[in-house]
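Milestone 3.1: sequence recovery, worked example.
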């Protein structure tokens, strides 16, 4: 299944769906950690370690997109 650009990555998309689902679950955990970390940072802004935790949580939230991009780029066409 190729589009007009000759880019047929649908197989990579289908193979990546289970892993994207797992990373979606991780992103929900990351969202919860992000909210808690953000609240704690507002309460006590002197804690710099919370900033690192919030950044890690944001990376977890973006995980499903990175997984799908990686899987579709691995399929040669």
């Amino acid at each position: 299944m190729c589009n007009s650009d000759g880019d047929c990555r649908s197989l990579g998309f289908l193979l990546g769906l289970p892993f994207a689902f797992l990373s979606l679950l991780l992103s929900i955990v990351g969202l919860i950690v992000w909210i808690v970390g953000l609240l704690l940072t507002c309460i006590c802004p002197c804690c710099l370690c919370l900033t690192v935790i919030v950044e890690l949580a944001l990376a977890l939230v973006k995980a499903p997109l990175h997984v799908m991009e990686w899987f579709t780029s691995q399929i040669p066409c």
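Helices lie at 10-43, 48-61, 63-74. The first helix runs from residue 10 to 43.
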